[in-house]
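Entry 14. Ran structure prediction on the chain below.
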Amino acid sequence: MNRAFALLPLAALLALGLLFGLFALKRDPKVQPHALVGKPLPELVLPALDDGRPVKLQDAAKPEPVLVNIFASWCAPCEIEHPVLVDLKRQGVRIVGIAYKDAPENTKAFLGRLGDPYAARLVDRDGRAGIDLGVTGVPETYLIGVNGTVLAKHTGPLTPETARELLAKAPR
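Output, structure tokens:
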């Protein structure tokens, strides 16, 4: 019995080491979620949702400021944030939507069911544009300012409060 108590601290230490080791294996130290902030929007060409024609993201993100929202029909948090995006559109905020790793027919059904807040709808079917943008998950929203500079990034679903905070970062 005394021997079991003596080994208890060692077992706890091993368990903590295993826990931290597994966490470190899943964490990429090179990932910088806000690496694009202060830099120009990457030069990306994506197909339009409606007709598949190629669209330069930089052209779609004009005039500035504009929000670029990465979303997917399969994303539950995207559905939660959607009414906020629809309300922003009603307020005159220009939003470019990028459907991330989603089938175009599913994206169209999603927007048909919930409403379409986007001035431009682009498709990133294979997720390559998401890599260039530094997407770590959906939804994510970028504020693009003058000359296509990324002013801010919000990860997760927008709420009315976080949308106001994000838009407040745009110069007036």
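The radius of gyration is 21 Å. Will compare against last week's run tomorrow.
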